[in-house]
């Protein structure tokens, strides 16, 4: 596993798009009963 770090600089609009996309993905995964995967998704950020 690599320990490289990537940093993204997002403006207000871009960060909103990322936030809402993650929220939508989380809600979809909750409906599918994939709670364990939600934690790993949130730990990426």
Task: Give a quick precis of the structure.
The chain is an all-alpha fold and 45 residues long.
Give a structural overview.
This protein is mainly α and 45 residues long. The chain is 62% helix and 0% strand. The chain is built from 2 helices and no strands. The protein has helices at residues 12-31, 35-42. The mean pLDDT is 81.
Relevant terms:
45 residues; mainly alpha; 62% helix
Overall number of strands: 0
Beta-strand residue percentage: under 5%
Helix share, percent: 55-70%
Mean pLDDT: 81
Largest sheet: none
Q: What's the order of the H and E elements? A: HH
Overall morphology: flat
Please give the radius of gyration in angstroms.
13 Å
| Number of helices, counting only DSSP H or I runs of 4 residues or more | 2
List the helices and strands and how they pair.
Blueprint: H1 12-31, H2 35-42
């Amino acid at each position: 596993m690599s320990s490289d770090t990537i940093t993204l600089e997002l403006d207000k609009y871009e960060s909103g798009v990322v936030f809402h996309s993650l929220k939508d993905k989380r809600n979809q995964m909750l409906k599918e009963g994939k709670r364990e995967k939600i934690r790993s998704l949130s730990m990426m950020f």
